[in-house]
Amino acid sequence: MTIYASDDATKVAENTEPDQIEPVRAEVHSPDPDGNHTPPSYPIDDEPEPADETDEPEDADGEPEDPAEPDWSAEPDWEHDHVEFHGDLLAFRVPAQSAVTSLGIGAGPGSTPNEQSFYARYFLSTHLSSQSFQRFLMRSIQPDGYPAEVTDPQGDLVNAISKPLLDRLEAEAKARKTAPKGKK
């Protein structure tokens, strides 16, 4: 029991020690003879399923496909824009100015690397088509996916899909500067 000065208590409890609780031993399962730590309540499959002679998917030539290079192409009927990014034609939507501004705030100076990565990934996932985003991620993960000089593919792609917006804003600003000024 806790006694506070505001309780007007004049007598302090005699037993201030917490009650002793008897420790409970956890049940420990030792590994099976193979060294696996499998709980005994789960059945262990002793014999794996026999594999077919070829587990590799085959393409039209009968050659096994390389899982690192799936047959991929940009969506031909994509209604928005496309950008060439290190050999891939990726489908994307030109971001609104508010999206680029929000990305700059969320992933800008003062943000942790995890926050920067989260906002850049979210920006890309909402502006790329799902197939293009998948392709970008697969190539980013592969050891030889992008050339060695590409050190920040995520940032490079954000810049590439933001470029049409930035070009348009720059052209509008230039047009305002060169437009004849009206008389007051």
From TrEMBL:
Skewed-composition ranges (Acidic residues): 44-76
Region (Disordered): 1-81
InterPro entries: Phage_TAC (IPR056927)
Record's compositionally biased regions (Basic and acidic residues): 22-35
Pfam families (alphabetical): Phage_TAC_16
Source organism, top-level taxon: Bacteria
Annotated protein name in UniProt: Tail assembly chaperone
